[in-house]
Amino acid sequence: MIHYNLSCDNGHGFDGWFASSDDFDRQAAGQLISCPTCGSASVSKQLMAPAVATARKKEAHQALVMDKAQKETIAKLREIVNSIRANAEDVGERFPEEARKIHYGEADQRGLIGKASADEAIALLEEGIEIAPLPVIPDEAN
Predict the structure, then answer these.
(1) For the chain, how many structural domains are there in total?
(2) Are residues 84 and 17 in the same domain?
(3) 61 is a domain residue
(4) In contact, 132 and 111? CB cutoff 8 Å
(5) In 10 A of CB 21, how many CB atoms?
């Protein structure tokens, strides 16, 4: 994973984590990244110091645990994701096709969840179809 300091065209700063530099470029080009403050999809990477792994940093990472507030936030997020799943139809790999049918009035409006590749998600967004990634929440053991 790569961590970037990001900012929008309105000057709001925020963090982002990406699988690779190409992943950031692909998501930014498809306007899949937006400012959490104002919603702007015009986002760019900011200059940042390289992350250098030192013995002290490794020790700090090994000692990192969630505090009570973080655990409560994860629990709330898990509750939201479970509610979304309970109130949506899981169409699996047919997600892009079903989302288009709803968007173009060929199927009744309803909540959908399913799978889409990055290219499929970008194509849906370019067609004006509102989609959002569903976060994967760590299980209770994590």
Answers:
(1) 2
(2) no
(3) no
(4) no
(5) 11
Q: For residues 39 and 37, give the distance between their C-alpha atoms in angstroms, rounded to a whole number.
A: 6
pLDDT by position in tens, the chain (length 142): 688 889 989 989 888 888 888 888 889 888 899 988 898 999 988 876 565 555 555 555 443 467 888 888 888 988 998 999 999 999 999 999 999 999 999 999 999 999 998 889 899 999 999 998 888 776 644 4
Contact 82, 137 (CB under 8 A): no
Contact 96, 2 (CB under 8 A): no
SS3 of residue 13 by DSSP: strand
> Are residues 113 and 89 in contact, defined by beta-carbon separation less than 8 angstroms?
yes
Supply φ then ψ for residue 17, to 5 degrees: -115, 135
Contacts of 45 (CB under 8 A, 6+ apart): 4, 5, 6, 24
76 and 142 belong to one structural domain: yes
Q: Is the pTM of this model over 0.70?
A: no
Q: Which domain holds residue 124?
A: 66-142
Residue 51: inside a domain:
no
| Adjacent-strand bridge partners of 18 | 2
